[in-house]
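Could you join me in thinking about how sequence relates to backbone shape in a protein? Would you write everything just below, so we can both look at the same thing?
***
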Amino acid sequence: MTQGVQSYRAEIEVTCRSLEEHYKTLYEKCVTADQKTQLRNTYSAARYAFWKFDEMESAVKSDLAESTYNDLKVANTRIKAMLKNVDDIPAFLNLAAEAVRLAELPVDGQADRYVDQKGA
């Protein structure tokens, strides 16, 4: 695994862990059933992306991982900042969905297959 692919894997793990560690708090902040569904779907997709990245390591497009690494890192930085005080759950959910989309990209190149802006 190249250094770029290893770094990307680490960022996918950050996305997944951020959602996992704060899931209960985020779920409580959701005010509609749609938001709760979006959170569940986004978290599930994040776990799947992390698993798939490890499972398909040999098929990972390293050039794609390296080119989108900074975007995922920025999304994770924004997620961490928002987690300190989640007052806009729709914005957070959209950001989390974008991070998961970026996490999926190097493996299948079709990130919209698993998560869209509604998290489904």
